[in-house]
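Workshop exercise sheet. Pairs work together: one partner reads the sequence aloud, the other fills in the structure field after running the prediction. Swap roles for the next sheet.
Pair: D.N. / O.F.
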Amino acid sequence: MSEPEPEPETEPEPDTDTDTEPDTDELHAVTAALDTLTAKLQALQDQVDIMQLVAQYGPAVDSGSGEAAAALWTDDGTFDAIPHLRMRGRDDITGMVHGEGHQSLIHSGVGHVLTVPHIEVDGDRATGRSHALHLRWDADAGRFWVFQVSANTWRWARTSQGWRIAERINANLDGTAEHREMLAPPAGRGPLEDGTHGG
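Structure field:
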């Protein structure tokens, strides 16, 4: 009996799979989209972190927690409560909270309420503006009164411990033009054009 003849070798089928790796242009487009998304997420995180920082001030000072209030600032941060007090560094801020004047206020009933600030982030620095309300308890009337409404301008700095206040200026909105101008949008920009919106 003769051995069967070997089957002829066949050419491999051509690869018709269209699911090939993306080309260079597609990779660049994906990378650019991821970079844009990362930048937007970082911008949002910065905004949230700064808002949380500002939100801690009122509870800290109204509870008499001087060290906690001071820790919101950088080591050399400043706080100008125009025209009454100019604080330089954390020790000054702690001293204000623990001082006789502030302690008298919180034992009589007081609330420091800060509005959500408008924030502009530029790398590791940020600036902003907001209102602040100073409420005082009137035991005879059984109610709180708005004692002061002020304009605030801020400078924040990113540190190894996160965002901290580098400068806060607090000025009474008593009709003084300079105090009112602290709340104005930056020159040449409208109220909806001067923030970080992410496009």
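Discussion prompt: The helical segments are 24-55, 57-62, 66-70, 90-98, 100-108, 177-181. What would you look at next?
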